[in-house]
Amino acid sequence: MSVTEGTAGDWWKGAVVYQIYPRSFQDSNGDGVGDLRGILQRLDHLERLGVDVVWLSPIYRSPQADNGYDISDYQDIDPVFGTLADFDELLDEVHRRGMKLVMDLVVNHSSDEHPWFVESRSATDSPKRDWYWWRKAREGFEPGTPGAEPNNWESFFSGSVWQFDEASGEYYLHLFDRKQPDLNWENPEVRHAVYAMMRWWLDRGVDGFRMDVINLISKVLTLPDAEPLPGRTLANGAAHYTSGPRLHEFLQEMHREVFAGRDGLITVGETPGVSTEEAVLFTDPARGEVDMVFQFEHVGLDHGPATKFRPRRLEPGELAANLTRWQDALAETGWNSLYLENHDQARSVSRFGDDGEHWRASATALATMLHLQRGTPYVYQGQEIGMTNTPFASIDDFRDVESLNHYADDLDSGSSPAEALLGLASMSRDNARTPVQWDGSEQAGFTSGTPWIAVNPNSSRISVAAQDGDAHSVLAHYRALIALRHEHPVVATGSFTRVDAGDDAVFAFERAGADSGDGERMLVVANLSSDERVPSFTAAVFERWEDAEVLLTNLPGSEGSPDAAAPLAPWEAKVYLARD
Asked: 368, 524 in Cβ contact below 8 A?
């Protein structure tokens, strides 16, 4: 039975979520852009994979300045993806297969083409003027001139967060692109308009929301300057808009107004910059906010001191240590999302693994250590076949607004085109946005036309078709991991305890004490390096696991007990099961 059946309040603890980035998933009409009917064509793949929840990145009507995260109509489908009738058919088919469907909710900001903002900017005395953040120029400055911006915050997408509006002589706030003005959640009319829209989707049959940058909706009202970045006039203003003063009040109000009294839903809060202490507050069931957080700390470990586009190499054990810290912090209260990649992150096998000699082993080792922790795992489209970063040859190959803006800024700062491209090659969001590789044909089975962004040339060897039916493939391993979560309650609800393996590169942990289990214990041991490693377990650990069953391995022919003398091959992972 699928874990999504029934209405148990915490069914999502035993579930696996699959994220679809629609424009890159499957094109059904040959225009080069993925669409809803394309998703319909590939639902059997998701059913065979075994996932429980399908999360769609935005499909609402949008000018596509940020690939749909700039919404101009929250209650319609963008024509590039299809129609509301297509959506209803997709929703029915997802439900028929025993899966749930989650929408991406983007309400920190809208598009500047949304009727709300069009009305807001129409006049300074517009009834919707304070639905957004409007401010006059800095005192003593001529409006529209350099330095006149109301504060010195830098946008996530480079440049100032303020856009000058010549018609009114004022500025509006946009933490992201200038075409994504921030909604003013201080205005109760804004909040209740958002809640009404959310109820409309739930009444249509949607099973919940993944809430984009939801912890940015409450700002410090004075919008003060921040400490400038070294050598720059702009500053990181996150302290004044991340987890702001009324955030928990707003989320609790949303829960009461939208989710209370509805069974079987899932609510996910994307919360960049959140601490473990704050994550507990967000996800404590008694507080009525969200079911789980989607936090960023582990995917920021390799960021350079100035920018993510100057990444650093992680030390052995650094990723495992961070993941362990989050496991321990949320052990008693709260819930975490488990992920290594999504539409905003480069491909995990290229970033945290070894996409060369040990491509398959590292893709499956990373999956093993992630899926068997406490939390709800997420699979991003293509991750289940080990899709890698793309060898972009020039800036003309990129489509992402963040990447294009950074490249221009990098050149303005004195970097050469080669230096600027190097950072984009490893960290650009476009690495995750190339089309899903369904087969080895020219466009990887994604489209019969010209894709909106080029297909990774390695699709001739990495594809669903090449792996389907191969018992030793990355795809087969993902299917096995998802099945383990469904079959063994200890994976979903058991405790997490880190085990010292005597080597920082070896990530070992125990799962035990499942609420509804039968005394099952699970030991996961993963060599997260491209070198052979010899774990050194204590005698107590060895004794505890010497009679355990080898439940799953990622290397063909790998077997045995956790013997301190048994070496682990590069990126080897083993899962042991025992019963008390």
From this structure: yes
